[in-house]
Write a structure and sequence with these properties.
Elements lengths: L8 E5 L5 H10 L5 E3 L3 H10 L4 E3 L8 H5 L4 E6 L17 H4 L4 H9 L3 E6 L22 H12 L3 E8 L10 E8 L12 E2 L4 H4 L4 E2 L25 H16 L6 E2 L5 E7 L11 E2 L15 E10 L26 E6 L22 E5 L5 E10 L2 H8 L18 H10 L3 H11 L13
Parallel strand pairs: 1-2, 1-4, 2-3, 4-5, 8-9
Antiparallel strand pairs: 5-7, 6-7, 10-11, 11-12, 11-13, 13-16, 14-15
Helix pairs in contact: 1-11, 9-10
Length: 451
């Protein structure tokens, strides 16, 4: 590999599957120069997508910064240390001190090679970083003490330090994922926080054309896959899953004045069911397809696409075409499906009030949706499937051509590993926006936008 001693290099510590590296490349037009990660599977995916990068498959603590950079100046060092020992999603288990202290590697690099700009990404709770008690739990009385020491260490090395929480949906990724970012720089230039490019479709800024509307979950759905019937499965769904589907249909289809009409051949109203733990008996963990996807985690796929297939409930009509609000969340759905009540087609019970929880989904063709405005529809079937890895990567803001199903040798990745790489990844639009704001001298012109 030919080295340039004059060009500043970029280093991605904790590189994972390549989210930050991809965003940096989107901004600079170049692969990151060095990527470090202890996980062979992560490095293998990174190599497949960033073949020009120099890869270190070892612990960040075992890499000597001086030897790695080989006399080159470091323009940017990116750090995304393991976040699970800070995240509230971890639960009540004791934390590992070794993993919780990984962020100190940024100070090691600052001492050894003085990167001009340091960017660190983590969960919001990173600011609570403090000592552990004798049982291995965070000591609440010393909450944030280690974090403050970390910041002061960088400042003592000549860095200006600022930190802020940003949401991926505000920068063009169709996910609400929120992350903590710290920027430290030692070149005397100001730290710049990128201005949002997208916003709430109902906001004045979007209506005035100053911001684009948030990208939505509907954009990342691969509608060609379809949603198999929940009633024709070899292994029946669990009672909890059926209950979750029922509550979702009640909220997103029956009680929704403008349900999302999926762009599939049979008329279907769709939503996403979320498999995160519900906190109350009647809580609906899901979301409509006209909003950004909820955060994706490395703990497994938590999202399922549910479609209620409907037909008009009178014999002389085969239905009507419905405007598809797929690409613009502000589009008005002209097919008014105003639900009146849900009818059951078995026993002597003629229906139920919509103020009640939906009765248990039992078997196919048992429920009918009766609507007003002269157009009656009934639910003929309900379909569900888990979101696929390529849809989840799209939700994080990865480009369509990003390789996720095989490594650089051609070895196939199982879906579970693909999802893990996705959940751990930094949404690339985050990295692109931060690098463009703070290192414009290293960036290329953004496509379609004059710099």
């Amino acid at each position: 590999m030919q080295l340039s001693l004059f060009r500043e290099i970029i280093v991605d510590n904790f590189a994972g599957g390549g989210g930050a590296s991809t965003g940096i490349e989107m901004a600079t037009g170049l692969s990151v120069d060095i990527a470090i990660n202890h996980d062979p599977a992560a490095i293998a995916m990174h190599k497949a997508n960033h073949p020009d990068t120099e890869h270190y498959c070892e612990s960040v603590w075992d890499v000597d910064p001086v030897k790695a950079v080989r006399g080159r100046k470091v323009g940017l060092a990116w750090f995304s240390p393991d976040c699970k020992h800070f995240s509230k999603a971890k639960g009540g288990k004791p934390v590992e001190k070794k993993i919780r202290g990984l962020a100190w590697i940024a100070v090691k690099w600052a001492i050894a090679v003085k990167p001009r700009v340091i960017i660190l990404e983590n969960v919001e709770e990173f600011k609570t970083w403090g000592p552990l008690d004798e049982k291995g739990y965070p000591d609440k009385s010393q909450k944030g003490k280690t974090f403050n020491s970390f910041v002061k260490s960088l400042e003592a090395l000549g860095y200006e330090v600022e930190f802020k929480e940003l949401r991926a949906c505000d920068y063009g990724a169709p996910t609400i994922r929120k992350r903590f970012f710290m920027i430290a720089r030692c070149d005397g230039r100001p730290i710049v926080w990128p201005k949002p490019t997208h916003g709430d479709p109902n906001s004045l800024q979007v209506h005035a054309g100053k911001l684009q509307p948030w990208r939505t979950a509907s954009e990342i759905i691969d509608w060609d896959i379809g949603t198999p019937s929940i009633f024709e499965r070899k292994k029946p769904l669990s009672e909890n899953t059926m209950r979750r589907i029922a509550r979702g249909i009640k909220k997103f289809v029956i009680e929704n004045k403008e349900p999302f009409i999926a762009p599939v051949k049979p008329t279907a109203c769709s939503f996403l069911s979320s498999y995160y733990t519900e906190t109350t008996k009647n809580e609906v963990r899901g979301l409509g397809l006209d909003e950004p996807l909820h955060s994706i985690t490395a703990g497994g796929n938590r999202f399922a696409l549910v479609s209620a297939y409907i037909m008009q409930n009178f014999s002389s009509s085969v239905g009507q075409k419905l405007k598809e609000p797929l690409w613009a969340v502000t589009a008005v759905n002209k097919a008014s499906l105003v639900s009146a009540f849900l009818t059951k087609y078995y026993g002597t019970d003629v229906g139920q009030r919509l103020t009640e929880p939906l009765h248990t989904v039992t078997t196919k063709d048992r429920f009918g949706l009766v609507t007003v405005h002269g157009q009656n529809y009934q639910i003929m079937d309900i379909g569900m499937r888990m979101l696929q890895p390529h849809e989840l990567f799209a939700a994080q803001g990865f480009p369509d051509n990003y390789i996720i199903d095989r490594d650089f040798t051609g070895k196939q990745y199982p879906k579970k590993e693909q999802v893990a790489r996705c959940g751990n990844a930094v949404p690339p639009p985050f990295a692109e926006a931060l690098v463009r704001a703070n290192l414009p001298e290293l960036c290329i012109e953004k496509k379609g936008v004059a710099m």
